[in-house]
Design a protein that fits this description.
Layout lengths: L6 E4 L13 H14 L4 E3 L11 H15 L5 E5 L4 H14 L3 E4 L9 H14 L4 E5 L1 H4 L5 H7 L5 E6 L5 H10 L4 E4 L5 H6 L4 E4 L6 H12 L3 H15 L7 H12 L15 H16 L12
Parallel strand pairs: 1-8, 2-3, 3-4, 4-5, 5-6, 6-7, 7-8
Helix pairs in contact: 1-2, 1-9, 2-3, 3-4, 4-6, 9-10, 11-12
């Protein structure tokens, strides 16, 4: 299935049972809610998916079961975040074998690679797979920025197609567009900058709070694309306190607690993560409760696409 890097692509959470095994029943409930809301793809095994804690067998299960569930309605993309080039190539090959339709790729983990090393890393992986690739550009969290000059080199590989833009600099979207036109598709990777990024020309949104609020997320995206900015802003302003739960070291716990509120998940996380405690739990729960209390009525956003 061809990946169209456009619209809302949820970076979904991985669901666990109280016994720390994959909860594929609850996972399927959430994926179904995403599909019903009208998302454009499913991204597995990102930061929200607790990728660093997953075994290869668990990643295989997540890919194969998601591919089976979506039945070709939307592409399934797996995140690649490895410490070695050979490990990343192996992960990409396994993803292709298990049925994934595309890859989201981080620079090398742990080691702060130079620009040359980072470009070489991405190029070798791109050569090793036929799958389309979205580069995850997040220097705030991962300390390596993929610059325009680096993308100039990378885009000689036709299967490097998109960037998840998470530099927090919205003007970077214009720089990418000016330099590469539509050759490089741009998706916002920061929930609290999504509307602004799409107004600036981003093609879509790799979203986090969509895990708990899929309809509201897709509604904002579709309304912006139709130029109905005022309507999108009304929803976005309601959403902002919730979206801010994504820009936190405890984003996984925050969003899983929000999923509990909407019936789309459980609080179980994999250690060393633990569910929120004390005053911080009270603070986050208040934000979620207020969001649920004031949840807006949505227009017929599905008719816009």
């Amino acid at each position: 299935m061809k990946v169209i890097w456009n619209g809302v692509m949820p970076a979904v959470t991985t669901k666990f049972t109280k016994d720390d095994t994959l909860d594929m029943k609850m996972f399927a409930i959430n994926i179904n809610a995403q599909l019903e809301a009208g998302v454009n793809g499913i991204i597995l095994g990102g930061t929200l998916g607790e990728a660093s804690t997953l075994t290869y067998e668990e990643k295989k299960t997540l890919i194969t079961e998601t591919v089976k569930q979506v039945e070709g309605k939307v592409p399934v993309i797996i995140n690649i975040a490895e410490q070695t080039t050979t490990g990343a190539i192996d992960a990409a090959n396994k993803a292709e074998k298990y049925g994934a339709n595309g890859l989201m790729m981080l620079p090398p983990m742990r080691y702060k690679a130079t620009d040359f090393e980072t470009v070489t890393y991405f190029k070798k992986i791109a050569k090793s797979t036929a799958l389309p690739i979205m580069i995850y550009n997040n220097p705030i969290d991962y300390k390596i920025e993929v610059t325009l000059e680096m993308f100039e080199e990378l885009l000689v590989h036709e299967n490097i197609e998109a960037v998840k833009e998470s530099t927090r600099d919205i003007s970077n979207i214009t720089r990418f567009r000016n330099r590469f036109g539509d050759r490089l598709r741009i998706l916002c990777g920061v929930d609290t900058l999504a509307l602004e990024s799409m107004v600036a020309g981003a093609d879509g949104w790799v979203a986090g709070l969509v895990c708990a609020f899929p309809q509201e997320t897709v509604a904002i995206c579709n309304l912006v694309k139709e130029g109905r900015i005022h309507e999108a802003l009304e929803i976005y302003r309601w959403f902002m306190p919730l979206l801010e739960l994504d820009i936190s070291p405890q984003l996984v716990q925050n969003i899983k607690l929000a999923e509990v509120g909407t019936g789309l998940g459980t609080e179980y996380v994999r250690e060393p993560r633990l569910p929120l405690q004390g005053d911080e739990r009270i603070r986050v729960q208040k934000i979620i409760d207020e969001g649920l209390r004031t949840r807006p009525k949505l227009p017929n956003y599905k008719a816009l696409v």
